Amino acid sequence: MVSRMDSACPLVACPVAPGVFRFAVTVFTILAFAVTWLSARSGKQTAWTYLAFGYMVGVLANALIPHIALTIAMRRYMRALQRLWR
Question: What pTM value is reported for the model?
């Protein structure tokens, strides 16, 4: 099963170096903080507020959609994608 999934989704199964992961998390955290701060300072119905809301929706969708899709496809609860590749 794992080999079939690896050949079907080679990019998902590729490991990410810890330094690259930390850099990406740091950049996205700083960007999210900056957008949230600008949204709080500029008030309602501004581009920063809509950007902050879009970022929140994107993070939520990224967290939920893969797990829901895999749970339906595998017919068991999938709490993390990493469990599928081990």
Answer: 0.59
